[in-house]
Amino acid sequence: MKADDLLRKAYKCILDNDFEGAIGWFEQAMIIEPDRADIRYRCSITYARSDKLDQAIRNVKEAIRLDPEEPSYNLHYQRLQAKELTRLAVRKLQFRQDDDFGEAAEAAKLLEKAAKLDPLSAEAQVWLALSYGETKDYHKALKAIWEASALMQDDAVSEHLKKLEQRFKTYIDHSSN
């Protein structure tokens, strides 16, 4: 069987929301044609959709090695790096002690990098706002909330962001009095 036949099977699986099946077909296609960057890239996207970030990063790096001039591969890689940094930062925020501002500051630095790599990541902006809030940098927290609000389309999430915005404004008001 040719690699393109396997790709068609992978796309059929994707249409059926069977991402694991699609990954299996992509992996088989890569065995047949290991030097095709497009297969690695597509497999990376499917791994990312399945929340398998390590495998997604490994495959997109290989796609970039095979075809470094393709801009979509590099853009995808930046988004994956942003996701990875966001995950690391969230772990720091979730497992820190209440009085450990150093962990929150480190999380904020990771999230600043994530937001730079993927300026359309509302998730990174929300967590960035929370990390700034933890370090009591409420002006930066507000700015991150506004960025996240501009990116969000979900009414329920937008309502939650408005509450966070109001909370940070209250902290700013109390600290200026």
* Tally of helical runs: 9
Profile the largest sheet.
none
Distance between the termini: 73 Å
Order of helices and strands: HHHHHHHHH
Strand fraction equals under 5%
* Tally of strands: 0
Radius of gyration: 20 Å
Mean pLDDT: 94
pLDDT under 50 segments (min length 5)? none
Helix content: over 70%
Structural class: mainly alpha
Overall body shape: elongated
Pfam families: TPR_19
InterPro entries: O-mannosyl-transferase_TMTC, TPR-like_helical_dom_sf, TPR_rpt
Protein name: Tetratricopeptide repeat protein
Keywords: Repeat, TPR repeat
Short description:
InterPro entries: O-mannosyl-transferase_TMTC, TPR-like_helical_dom_sf, TPR_rpt. It contains 9 helices and no strands.
Characterise the protein shown here:
This is Tetratricopeptide repeat protein. This protein is mainly α. 81% of the residues lie in helices and 0% in strands. The chain is built from nine helices and no strands. Helix 4 runs antiparallel to helix 5 (71-94), helix 5 (71-94) runs parallel beside helix 7 (122-134) and helix 8 packs antiparallel against helix 9. The longest helix has 24 residues, at 71-94. The radius of gyration is 20 Å and the shape is elongated.
